[in-house]
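Exercise 3.2. Students should predict the tertiary structure of the chain below and write it as structure tokens, then compare their answer with the key that follows.

Predict this chain's 3D structure.
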Amino acid sequence: MRQIDNLQEVFRHRTQLRQFIHKLNINEANDLTCEISVMRSYYAVRPSWYPNLSSRDVVFLRRIERLLEARIAAGCVKPELSCRGSVMTRSKFPFGDTLEFSQRFLTDAGWKLMHGEGGYVGIWLNEERLELYVYNEGDVCLYKAKTRNDLYGELLNFDIDHELVV
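Answer key:
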């Protein structure tokens, strides 16, 4: 279920809405902000697509969008954590394959390729900074671990066919 559907369930109840907004992590808040923006722009063009949404509701959605943007900018939104407690940051890279990604973003010393399948999948590890980049067909996840054991634990979570050199 998308976040916008969850938002519409608690739309009329301020306490539940406040609790819903405070439960969101940074990646969910970014996604919800985008969904609200798309919904508002579609409503402006074709209001018949949203028969249950009034213009007053659209104004309220804009207020929620501004609130989320302000919380994100101020750093008041909690980070997304992996199962091992590492901070996860999700993003998109639509500009090419793993080679292009590594040439643009992994130029610092210390990054080593741990796994790669053609140009579609890549896993890079930086032991000094305790970071792990996972690229999968344009979806990018950055894991920032607290300890070296957590970093290697994150690395072992991925189903890789061959032995890893660590």
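Discussion points: Residues 4 and 32 are 6 Å apart (CA to CA). The helical segments are 3-9, 14-23, 26-45, 55-74, 98-105, 148-156.
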